[in-house]
From TrEMBL:
Belongs to the peptidase M42 family. GO terms for biological process: proteolysis. It comes from Dictyoglomus thermophilum. PANTHER family: PEPTIDASE (PTHR42994:SF2), PEPTIDASE T (PTHR42994). One of its GO terms (molecular function) is metallopeptidase activity. Binds 2 divalent metal cations per subunit. Zn(2+) binds at H74. The keyword Protease applies. NCBIfam families: PepT-like. InterPro entries: ArgE/DapE_CS, Bact_exopeptidase_dim_dom, PepT-like, Peptidase_M20, Peptidase_M20_dimer, Peptidase_M42. This is M20/M25/M40 family metallo-hydrolase. PROSITE patterns: ARGE_DAPE_CPG2_1 (PS00758), ARGE_DAPE_CPG2_2 (PS00759). The keyword Ligase does not apply.
Length: 365
């Protein structure tokens, strides 16, 4: 079967290669060489050039039987992600405490490599598989947003980038919108003629207090996270800037939030204010039924592994959101990483190994 020791060594080697977002070049070159040594055809797209990075997305192709499935992971990490020094402690792989570990998402990539190495050594028959390794996932899924669709034929896929333990299948994820709002009042001297001014900070505060924030319902959240305004205590402020977001598993709920948001903004005009609003959709949500084949296929594998299956949802985004928007029915799969994006990030050796076994059995069909 798979070699646990080799898998651990591969993972430790991978996390030592820095691959901050849009600086994945060294890691991408290493991975491309590794995949080609394993007999796969590898193609790099021009997403890096589009985004100003030093590597594109990688596509690797394993010949086999039947219609292809897609298996995906991202190559980039967050900061601090340079000079990572991994070690084993109490059954977990951790960093030395000065950096992240990089299990997000190099645990998945090392598991893919180990699965492919084992298949090659055993000369096993496989199904046809396309692999996608994206750049810039951590800065807004930008690599996936610039995928070359012509290089992917799969209609179903698996993104291995979930925090849940092996057996966790994320079938729903939200639509995520962001707002950039500037409220304009009128400046005046706060001491001699405050009545001539229109205080943009107070207007924005009143607006915020009259809108629903936090957990709006079980599957919807709203947050304002940035606010800037004012120049001096003796000036009635004429401008304030705000940034925030909406997320919901129900896209219609996002639409109703925007309606309420803009309706309340218009009320400021009656008080002499003006505003400028820019809306941005970061990604669309997805929802996959448990009876779809993409789910049933991986559930069969997990059942054969003796793993408890947990079908769940997330309020975060992943490359699975983008792939679903392309019409590729894709779920996000838990790989057991913990405390991602922190210096306390870790993954258990058992979860790392189980991820490799899961991928191995998916590839074998």
């Amino acid at each position: 079967m798979l070699s646990k020791d080799r898998l651990i060594n591969t993972f430790m080697d991978l996390v030592k290669i820095s691959s901050l977002s849009l600086k994945e070049g060294d890691f991408s070159s290493f991975l491309k060489s590794k995949l080609e040594d394993l007999g796969l055809r590898v193609v790099e797209d021009n997403a890096g050039k589009i985004l100003g990075g030093n590597s594109g997305n990688l596509y690797a192709y394993l010949e086999g039987d039947g219609d292809p499935i897609l298996i995906s992971a991202h190559m980039d990490t967050v900061s601090p992600g340079e000079n990572i020094s991994p070690k084993i402690a109490n059954g977990y792989i951790v960093s030395d405490g000065n950096t992240i570990l990089g299990a997000d998402d190099k645990a998945a990539i090392s598991a893919i490599i180990e699965a492919l190495q084992t298949i090659r050594e055993r000369s096993e028959k496989t199904r046809r598989v396309e692999f996608l390794f994206t750049i810039g996932e951590e800065i807004g899924l930008v690599g996936a947003k610039n995928v070359d669709h012509s290089l992917i034929k799969s209609q179903e896929g698996y993104v291995f980038d979930g925090e849940g333990k092996v057996g966790t299948l994320i079938l729903r994820a939200p639509t995520h919108d962001r707002f950039y709002l500037t409220v304009y009042g009128r400046a005046s001297h706060a001491g001699t003629s405050p009545e001539k001014g229109i205080n943009a900070i107070l207007l924005a505060s009143e607006f915020l207090l009259n809108f629903s924030w936090g957990r709006v319902d079980d599957f919807t959240t709203a947050n304002v996270g940035v606010i800037r305004g004012g120049r001096a205590t003796n000036i009635v402020p004429d401008e304030v800037y705000l940034e925030g977001e909406f997320r919901s598993l129900n896209e219609d709920r996002i639409y109703s939030l925007w309606q309420e948001f803009e309706e309340k903004l218009r009320k400021m005009i009656e008080k002499g204010a003006k505003y400028d609003l820019r809306k941005e959709n970061l990604y669309k949500g997805f929802s996959i039924d448990e009876n779809e084949e993409v789910v049933k296929r991986i559930v069969r594998v997990l059942n054969n592994m003796g793993k408890k299956v947990e079908l769940t949802y997330t309020m975060g985004g992943s490359d699975a959101n983008i792939l679903n928007s392309y019409g590729i029915r894709t779920i996000n799969v838990g790989i057991g990483m913990e405390n991602a994006h922190s210096k306390e990030e870790r993954i258990s050796i058992d979860n790392l190994y189980d991820t490799a076994v899961l991928i191995y059995n998916l590839i074998r069909g």
